[in-house]
Design brief:
Pfam families: ABC_tran. By secondary structure, this protein is of the alpha/beta class. It folds into two domains: about 140 residues, Rossmann fold; about 60 residues, no CATH class. The chain has six helices and ten strands. A hairpin with a 2-residue loop joins β1 and β2. The structure holds adenosine-5'-triphosphate.
């Protein structure tokens, strides 16, 4: 998989939220985006998914222009802020319902991912009774459970305890080694430094490479 961002600029109400972004992202890598509150990290992730379209410039996914040739990248797993699930279903029921749409994920895979993240798939606890960290884990599972080739994660470590952070790190490394393209943001530079192959900083909508 390859995502090419060519001279992408997004202006909202006269403000340049993202400015002349050029970057090429390839499978088999984890890309980390850091930046202060309001710097444009979430906007950047939204643009990679086709959720926002540029004022000028373009995003190409495997050569296809977002918003023109395709609306969204195929085979995309995404965790944006506050994962939304149905409040009165259990975590397992929520994941099963989502997986029914494409019907490519066996229940056993959902169960083993939930086990891996220490979520009890047999539990009757409904999503609205989940803790913040449990919600976050469910959001991460839906972003990876269908063997998605592009995985976009906004602040995936948010609300996770130390053990869960370590587990997620290992999972993301093994997905990277399978050739997947992973892009994530964090406020915490240490999380990014430990895991990412390439790091970028967004400062006031402009992107700078760190390595
Ligand atoms: N719908 C919107 N309309 C206008 N401006 C917006 C909109 N959404 C975001 N912005 C602005 O775009 C800029 C970038 O926001 P963004 O959410 O990408 O920041 P961020 O780096 O993800 O911040 P945080 O770390 O706080 O999550 C901010 O100045 C924000 O106010």
């Amino acid at each position: 998989m390859k995502i090419e961002v060519n001279d992408f600029t997004k202006i909202i109400s006269k403000a340049k939220v993202l400015e002349n972004i050029n970057i090429c992202l390839e499978g088999g890598n984890i890309y980390g985006i850091i930046g202060r509150n309001g710097s444009g990290k979430t906007m950047f992730l939204r643009m990679l998914c086709g959720l926002i379209l540029p004022t000028s410039g373009m995003v190409k996914v495997d050569g296809k222009v977002l918003g023109k040739d395709i609306s969204f990248p195929e085979n995309l797993g995404i965790l944006l802020e506050k994962p939304s699930f149905l409040p009165n279903l259990t975590g397992y029921e929520n994941l099963q319902m989502l997986s029914d749409i494409r019907n490519i994920t066996p229940n056993e895979k959902i169960q083993s991912l939930m086990n891996l993240f220490e979520l009890d798939w047999k539990s009757k606890k409904t999503f609205n009774k989940y803790s913040l960290g449990m919600k976050q884990k469910l959001g991460i599972i839906q972003a990876i459970m269908e063997n998605q080739q592009i995985i976009i994660l906004d602040e995936p470590f948010n609300a996770l305890d130390e053990v869960s952070v370590e587990k997620l790190r290992k999972i993301l490394e093994s997905l990277r080694d399978e050739g997947k393209l992973i892009v994530m943001t964090s406020h915490n530079k240490e999380d990014i430094d430990l895991l990412c192959d390439h790091t970028y900083t967004i400062v006031n909508g402009k992107m700078e490479a760190e390595n």
